[in-house]
Design goal:
The protein is mostly helical. It has one domain. It contains 18 helices and no strands. The radius of gyration is 20 Å and the shape is globular. 43% of the residues are buried.
Length: 368
């Protein structure tokens, strides 16, 4: 029950923060409340909630606390358990300097990740209703960040990267992707997105933008083939091989296709309909939304390999609401239908299918 209460509270606070009748101080207050309320879930959860906690999350923080006087020894222990990203290691090390409580660490990690996503969404508020974008994050992306930890930070930074690129702040965007790679090596795949948005924003001719979108879609469609080929040739290091070696059965694509096809079709429709227009933002976001579906074959390699597609998936946060906005004169109805879709998606993926193993959500006994 607390999972639904805190998610609902966060959505409500986000709605209030974007209200035009409030001054900036009240808006900032409700923004903080929105981020904190959902981050509480990160902190109070039982340590069995989320697959990555048991794999490395708990151990990395324990080692940070045990070796708080020697960063060198700490990194040696991190590498021994397969955690080599310096960004995530440093974050653990800093928190361990003043707290031995692992729940405090997860709470602060949640604050960090959720704040970045919040800022990223808020930067797009002139293009789409911010509250709708935040609900998109809570229903689709947040469960993944609750589970993935270090990649959750990388996803947040890649989301922020896009908002900078669309505002022509290319250096800030580059710093975001470099920081993301320091938290999770797989963020290197996001350079494909960086180059795509950068090129779209650099050209003004509509036909050139269309060509860039087409090339981007083709490149993205070949990513699963390239990843599989690299692994078959032994060209992936052990660090990357963990994403393509999985003893579990391949995931059925049917449910994933059903969830994405409506937005893929809408993206294709508007890209074709507005092919003569030089709209950099629409073509960037709709192109990424379309490309994300083309990465679904990664699920047939392994469930872990599909994590690469999450770097595309974070652009659903502005992309899906922007598609709803296209229904001129009917946008309010479209948003209502869309919110119903989001709740259905959350129920099917997180509650019924148990994606990320975060439901049922159990509160840790030592936080009560």
């Amino acid at each position: 029950m607390i999972l639904f209460v805190m998610l609902s509270a966060s959505a409500l606070f986000a709605f209030l923060s974007s209200s035009h009748v409030l001054n900036r101080y009240y808006s900032a207050f409700f923004s903080i409340c929105s981020v904190v309320s959902v981050s509480v879930l990160n902190g109070i959860r039982d340590l069995s909630i989320g697959t990555d906690l048991g794999v490395y999350g708990n151990n990395v923080f324990i080692q940070a606390r045990a070796n708080m006087l020697s960063f060198h020894d700490y990194m040696f222990e991190c590498k021994a358990i397969g955690m080599t990203e310096y960004g995530y290691a440093i974050f653990n090390y800093i928190i361990a300097q003043f707290s031995s409580n692992i729940h405090i660490f997860y709470f602060l990690l949640g604050i960090f990740v959720n704040s970045i996503f919040y800022i990223s969404g808020f930067r797009n508020r002139e293009r789409i209703p911010f509250s709708i974008a935040w609900i998109t994050y809570l229903m689709i992306i947040y469960p993944a960040t609750l589970n993935l930890l270090r990649q959750g930070v990388a996803l947040a930074l890649i989301s922020l990267m896009g908002s900078f690129l669309l505002s022509n702040k290319n250096i800030s965007a580059l710093l975001c992707i470099l920081a993301a790679c320091s938290f999770h090596n797989s963020a290197v795949f996001a350079f494909i997105i960086y180059i795509f948005i950068y090129l779209i924003c650099r050209v003004n001719a509509a036909h050139r933008q269309n060509m860039i979108v087409l090339v981007f879609l083709c490149v993205s469609a070949f990513v699963p083939t390239v990843v599989s080929w690299l692994d078959s040739k032994g060209l992936l290091s052990d660090k990357y091989s963990q994403y393509v070696v999985d003893t579990s059965l391949s995931i059925s694509l049917i449910s994933s296709l059903i969830a994405r096809i409506p937005f893929f079709v809408l993206s294709a429709y508007y890209l074709i309909k507005e092919r003569s227009d030089s709209n950099k933002i629409d073509k960037s976001l709709f192109g990424i939304v379309g490309a994300e579906l083309l990465l679904l074959p990664l699920q047939n390699i392994s469930s872990s390999a599909f994590r690469v597609a999450l770097y595309y998936g974070v652009y659903k946060i502005p992309g899906y609401p922007l598609l709803c906005k296209k229904f001129r004169g009917m946008s309010k109805i479209a948003y209502i239908i869309y919110v119903i879709y989001l709740m259905s998606y959350f129920y099917i993926q997180t509650i019924r299918n148990g994606s990320g193993e975060i439901y049922p959500f159990v509160v840790a006994a030592d936080t009560l």
